[in-house]
Amino acid sequence: MRWYDPFLYPFALLYDGVTRYRNGMFDSGKKRSTEFLIPTVVVGNLNLGGSGKTPMVEFLVESLKDHYRLATLSRGYGRKTKGFLLAEQNLGPTDLGDEPFQIFSKYGNEVTVVVGEERVMAIPQIIYHRPETELIILDDAFQHRYVKADLQILLTTFQNPFFKDRVLPLGTLRESADGAGRADLIIVTKCPASITEEEKSVFQKEIRNYADVPILFAGIKYGNPEPLFQPNSKLLKKVILVSGIANDGLFKEAAGKRFQVLETITFADHHRYTSADVRRILELVKKHEGAMVLTTEKDAVKLKDGAFHDYLAEIPIFALPIKVDMDQNDSQYLIERITNIVKDKAYIREI
Predict the structure, then answer these.
(1) pLDDT in tens, 10-25
(2) Whole-structure pTM value
């Protein structure tokens, strides 16, 4: 126990009471959840950030975009705009939020990307503006109970599973671990490649104290670094790491295995880059001649902002792409589960 935990306990007790009361209102029907004719899938978590929601949403998009007309719906955390907004080419991360902008940058020509705080109001607008939509994936909406989704996917990390965590501010849980009972399927994310069947069994036993649902396991894999500005840039062995994500431990670990890390700049999650930040990066590049900058996909989309182009376009800067790495059986089960929901709901004719 940390020395200051006793001071946080009353606040955690109050927070837990408020969230339990809110959930109780929905459970009793005093607050209403709306179910839509169009199939909806929620990807969410119980804790604050870092569970791998964006890679999981991208995994679902990759797996389903050739079969259904998809839309992704996010709140758009950190954006400066308000209300319903369809992603378009003239909009940036400050308009859409970091994660929606990243998804739009990668899949904007294949799927509809939407942001809107009131998801229950945004879904009808998606149907109005994109009537061809056949499936909506809601990113980070596990606590948004005004929408009754057809499939609630709860993510929890191998490193910090919800059953070992505590509610805010003692821990990082947005609500009690009992909230896992609302999940239809739970995925343990960021699993090491060396995870054993015994370790999986331990997780399954602990999770089933809260939810008797299918439990899948997924790791992450990093691809080859991709240049931000110069398509023919060559990879260098020495790197300066730059990241602004909830937990950059695995990013640092992956980079350390493949490159010689000279310097590391770590910003808070959803950091808004400034000219001063970019100048700091440039100073380190000048200090370490023959080194390149390596960053995350999430940070790359912000560093590509036109305001920084003159600063960064001439230096070697690469993004390290990340993807979900899931066992074929687990992957097949997940996609078939969603496919069956779409077919059973009969919103569209069977393909």
Answers:
(1) 999 999 999 999 999 9
(2) 0.93
